[in-house]
Design brief:
By secondary structure, the protein is an alpha+beta fold. It is built from four helices and four strands. The model has no long low-confidence stretch (mean pLDDT about 95).
């Protein structure tokens, strides 16, 4: 495990890989589930920061609803993950960094509307 607290499955896009393909690959690598990627919920622009001179984009897709069989099949990538949890919207802010909590909240707001939210540095624009 290389950072404390909870995160959502994800990671960097490999060269020549689309964001959707990266999402599917990262979910499979990190929690062992090979699922279709749903619609795009949120895009967040992240500026360069000390120690990382590049700006970037973060994409959140709808992962759908897991059935009991899929939940039982979750297998963590032991090098990066120690545990997992399902959390209610009210619990999220206490479990994840504030910028991630804002991203998750934005996704939950547009989940049923069909909209996609555009964010910059973790804030809707």
């Amino acid at each position: 495990m290389y950072k404390p607290g909870f995160e959502v499955p994800g990671g960097s896009i490999d060269q020549g890989e689309s964001p959707r393909a990266a999402c599917r690959r990262e979910v499979f690598e990190e929690i062992g589930l090979d699922r279709p990627v749903g619609r795009l919920l949120m895009v967040d622009w992240v500026p360069p920061r000390p120690g990382w001179p590049y700006d970037g984009m973060i994409f959140f897709y709808d992962g759908g609803i897991l059935d009991e069989e899929e939940i039982a099949a979750i297998r963590l990538q032991e090098e990066e993950l120690a545990e997992w949890v399902f959390a209610s919207p009210d619990q999220v802010a206490a479990l994840v960094p504030s910028v991630l909590a804002r991203r998750i909240a934005a996704c939950l707001r547009v989940l049923d509307s069909g909209a996609t939210v555009s964010m910059e540095e973790g804030y809707p624009v």
